[in-house]
Amino acid sequence: MLVDSHCHLNFPDLATNLPAVLQAMRDNGVDHALCIGVTLEKFPQVLAIAEQHDHIYATVGIHPDSENVQEATVEQLVALAGHPKVVGIGETGLDYFRLTGDLEWQRERFRTHIRAAIASGKPLVIHTRNAAEDTLRIMREEGADRIGGVMHCFTESQEVAEQAMELGFYISMSGIVTFKNAGALKEVAKNIPLDRLLVETDSPYLAPIPYRGKTNQPAYVKHVAEHVAELRGISLEEVAVATTRNFFRLFSQAQPCN
User: Fold this and answer.
1) What is the spatial distance between Cα 126 and Cα 228, in angstroms, rounded to a whole number?
2) pTM to 2 decimals?
3) Within 10 Å of residue 97's Cβ, how many Cβ atoms?
4) Residue 256: inside a domain, yes or no?
5) Residue 258 reports pLDDT greater than 70
6) CATH of the domain at 77
7) In terms of DSSP H, where are the helices of the chain?
8) In terms of residue numbers, what domain contains 75?
9) Measured distance CA(41)–CA(195) in Å, rounded
10) Dihedral angle at the C-alpha atoms of 3, 195, 152, 90, nearest 10 degrees?
């Protein structure tokens, strides 16, 4: 059994073919997936998918890249997170790669999400790109260690991973770890304690080898897990058991389907 801990099933590339996407999950032993919210405007789409499928869960949040969208208060996020299929807050964090200039609004948005996670008792899904120092600083300042979460689609250094784990966070590997030029990340994947590891697709983006450049889907998380297993010199089953257990430990409101 595998879990795709981060995907975007409501995005058009997947939503327009959702029955086939869900069947491919089943065919590849991917029993659960977490559909991630990136704006309040599109959150109803995310929630609808989770409500319609027992094995799909949802999060609520505003992606750091999302400009000119409805902002959320702590109270709004907590209220939306009260739904039984919403198991986390995010995707949130910082991204200094795509956006430049004064990004204080991004940092304030991140702080709001951390406060909402603590208030709701639901873990964070954190995105960080070219912003690790500020991401970790704000996590510490806001007490993110009180609630924990996951550093999704991790591409940072071993040092950053260790600092995040000290704050109670899990580290999630995406299809990027399968890329030939991801040597440093492969070393991180080998060194993360197995009880702090998750796997994901971030689909429809970042398809792993052998599907790189094509539309990604949750079924392909199997290839991420296989590569991590190969790097660590253990079986796919060991990675699947550990990452699935980690997912349900972190997102404790989610329940495995029978």
Assistant:
1) 21
2) 0.97
3) 11
4) no
5) no
6) 3.20.20.140
7) 12-15, 18-27, 43-52, 74-80, 104-120, 132-141, 158-166, 183-191, 221-232, 236-250
8) 2-250
9) 35
10) 80
